Q: What sequence folds into this?
């Protein structure tokens, strides 16, 4: 454990670690300085290295070797960090949530096609497009499906953007879905916007890919007006 008394100015209360097989997991408050934490480790055996109550840099994995009474050695790896998850998809169609500290798989969900995009977060949902021409919104805690929305031709663009309570996808079309329900709001440019990125600010979508930048403006996105091209500017030399 990490005692607040041993780590003044860093911890305001004790942090009790959990042992999982040969790993020790310590979850500390966000913003905790991990560079010089002093642990208090109780063990059974002949000796331990490094010694308990010796400050260590826990920004990475710290290994402790316990020499048992029979002189055999057991190594425990200590993972220290703040609560969180890492989300990503793979070409097999799975979306994964991993524990940000240990890398343990917390949940996985199978879509109907390859997942190339980096997921976006909206409230307590993870939203990402799949090669099966659908967008998926999953509960971040357990990976349960919240909604499934149709995309016009798939999702081969970059990370979807969330703004105005909608989620915007690129490739091959530009698509806007209601972020809470997955219901389609509009879709334009079938087959034209492959491998581009989309970023939304206010009522304007900025779409970039290849050697061009397109600025697309909506008069009233909430009223489901389609985007109208406001202009385009060559990004080439």
A:
């Amino acid at each position: 454990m990490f005692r607040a008394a041993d780590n003044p100015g860093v911890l305001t209360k004790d942090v009790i670690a959990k042992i999982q097989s040969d790993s020790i997991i310590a979850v500390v408050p966000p913003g905790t300085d991990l560079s010089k934490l002093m642990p208090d480790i109780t063990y059974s055996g002949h000796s331990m290295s490094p010694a308990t109550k010796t400050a260590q840099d826990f920004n990475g994995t710290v290994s402790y070797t316990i020499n048992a009474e029979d002189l055999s050695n057991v190594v425990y790896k200590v993972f220290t960090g703040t609560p969180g998850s890492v989300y990503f998809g793979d070409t097999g169609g799975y979306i994964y949530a991993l524990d940000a500290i240990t890398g343990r798989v917390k949940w996985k969900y199978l879509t109907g096609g390859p997942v190339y995009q980096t997921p976006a977060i909206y409230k307590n949902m993870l939203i990402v497009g799949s090669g099966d021409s659908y967008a998926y919104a999953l509960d971040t805690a357990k990976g349960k499906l919240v909604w499934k929305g149709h995309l016009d031709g798939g999702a081969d663009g970059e990370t979807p953007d969330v703004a105005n309570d909608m989620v915007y996808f690129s490739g091959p079309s530009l698509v806007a879905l209601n972020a809470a329900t997955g219901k389609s709001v509009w879709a334009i440019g079938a087959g034209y916007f492959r491998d581009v990125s989309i970023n939304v600010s206010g009522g304007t979508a900025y779409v970039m890919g290849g050697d061009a930048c397109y600025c697309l403006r909506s008069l009233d996105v909430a009223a489901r007006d389609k985007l109208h091209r406001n202009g385009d500017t060559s990004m080439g030399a």
Q: What stands out?
A: The radius of gyration is 24 Å. The chain has no helices and 20 strands. The first strand starts at residue 18 and ends at 20. The mean pLDDT is 82.
